[in-house]
Model the fold of this input.
Amino acid sequence: MMHESFDQAKDRPDNINEILNGLDRYNPETTGIFQDYIASQCEERTYDCYANLALLKLYQFNPHLTREETITNILVKALTVFPGPDFSLCLHLLPPHILHPASSASSLPAAGDAPLSEAVQKLTTLNTLLEGANYKGFWTTLDSDDLYADLTADVSGFEELMRVRIAVTVGQSCREVERAVLEGWLQLKGADFEKFISDICGWGLDAARGPPKGGMVVIPVNKENEAKSSVVRENVSFDRKFFLHFGWEERMIVGADDSCRILARGKESLRATGVEVGGSERAREEFVVLFVSWKYYLLARTGIRSEHEME
Amino acid sequence: MSSYERALQGVVAQRMMDDASEQDEEAMVQDYQEQVNYDDGMDDLEPTTSISQMPDMQANLMAAATPLEYQATLETKLNSYDNYCNLFHWILNSDGPVDFDIPSPQWAWEVIDEFIYQFESFCRYRNRVARTDPSSEDAQLLRESPHTWGCYSVLNVLYSLIQRSKISEQLLAMKQGVDQKTAMGQVGGEYGSKLIYHTLGYFSMIGLLRVHCLLGDFSLALKTLDDIELNKRSMFARVMPAHFTTYYYVGFCYMMMRRYADAIRMFSHILVYVSRTKNFQKNAQYDSMAKKNDQMLALVAICVSFNPTKLDDIIHTALREKYGDQLNRLQRGGPESLPLFEELFRSACPKFISPTPPDFDNPAINIDPVDHHTSIFMQEVKSNMFSPTVKSYLKLYTTMDLKKLAGFLEVQPEQLRQWLLVNKQRNRQVRWSEGGLLQGDVINSNELDYAMAGDLIHISEAKVGRRLVDWYLRNLSRAY
Done:
């Protein structure tokens, strides 16, 4: 199981960490630091969504500080970790009119918005293709307009990062893929393709199989593509679901060993076998109902305990 | 310089505000000085500022927890902002902690709640006026006061209350087993040891959760609750509206981060709690929660459509009663379900706001933030809309040929391959297990799992063992 925490990034410098955890994250003077940080993420091929969102928030609060190429760089970096929520989380922090040019086209938007709006539209198109697993469409669209090359130019190794990311999602879903299909998804052919799947992915190639002249890429078994059947056992803790159901929660505590302690509203208590009962006549009556039903429950749950054991 | 003062300077100080806001600040300072002067004579006698010496503040404190009338004019709203400024300025910047016994923790919650509510409704009103009626008198008034209810001021109040009260430190101590009184006394310091600061600081954290969510910053919203443990022992659980609000916003933020299992867990917790305790709630309070209750049910409907889960019986029944037909349509997916997703989302989402004043000269670019966030959410819905179709077929087989299935569905094999990849990816979700709300493990959230080997789809299902507890609970309630 992969453990994640959205607010952490393994390559984050200490000074960024300090800003993010303090009130300086709202200080417009840190804008420059965050801008340098995203620039270094682009160069070094690292990624820190939580810090980039902090920069977008600074832009959100101080629109006059906005730098368009920084926004597009953040979005392009977010593409490289699809299908995570990162791209959407970035969009949520952008000024609404950037995403809705149709309504603002008639009246002229503030100067300089149009190019950004167009860039965001284009990147959103790419994101939609990626989230829809239309990888072939992604590559075709990327090549269809020079603007894409401009937008992704700052992000070092963008195409390779995308290939790796696509390969990761394929590796989770497939055990074998036709070579031709995977070539389309990765937009690689011939020796480049073979090198990529063996060196980067560690996958095999079985030339003898697949459709005529094709060949089959063989992906080793992993936890995701194994798709193993399993039986899920019911796991219910006493004190939550079971007793909450009857509003008994406050009065009954069940130990890990199924011993049962009943705390009634009153103070006096009466001891029973492994059971503490307290309170008035009414509480005792309630206890009897409770205790009997508790035994029932154990019977139903384990099916093996005898009544004797339970008393 | 205390960390609070640094924060004040760092966050709101002049360097980040333009001239107009400096005037605002000056006005605030002037107001404050007037009050101080008013008290000057007495200050010589008594070192602490006492509430009895400030009749205005007494009224102000009470007003702060009282909702504005629905029909309140813009002028009233602007004045109300000034009142809050004065009040918080007095609480935070008096000579030492103020001496005021709060009636109950509920009062502190109501102050923070009403403060944020007025901020939210002011921002929405301002945006609406700029969009629809930019030449009105109100628009003119709003143009002239761009810094009223500014988001920096609102955040500043909340963060200052948190810092003054040392509530984070107190909560940390309480996490380590110290009780509330001891934590207040030992860790809270001069301010945090007083109940007014302790409670205001605490509810400010929940206020931040809400403000960040309203601004569309869902990860930061969840991060602000790092110090608060979501359990029944927490203070918010003692104030029903706070309890309710906390779970609504946490659940909503999880949903926007595509952590549907966690979102369902949050909504379920509070919906079950409300249904169990509704007999004990005061009627007026319950009425105001009924709407939010329905909203959360709608969000549960959205989340279970993405992430089919067995729900608690109570919620399941309520969902069937309230949204039975809609739920079926959502779960069927496809393009026909899109308008319904949108309708439910709009009816149940928070009233998003934009942090900056609108552009009164270009009405058309002032888009309603709700439209903005809805459209982004709908992109995610669209990416997923064929998952239910795919799942419904896969359930029937253990192996299936991709081309054959594509034939059944009347789509190209390539298209089906994409749907299968999408569905598989969406089944992988981060789910919380321990620690802060943003932490979690990547798990496979669906009972149905599959893998493709060329054109052959291998399907497996996680079977659920006998569900004895439900059987037992049903029979037991019948026996009563």
Q: What stands out?
A: The longest strand of chain B covers residues 456-464. Chain B touches chain A through 90 residues (CB under 8 Å). Residues 105-132 of chain B form the longest helix (28 residues). The CA atoms of residues 205 and 225 of chain B lie 7 Å apart.
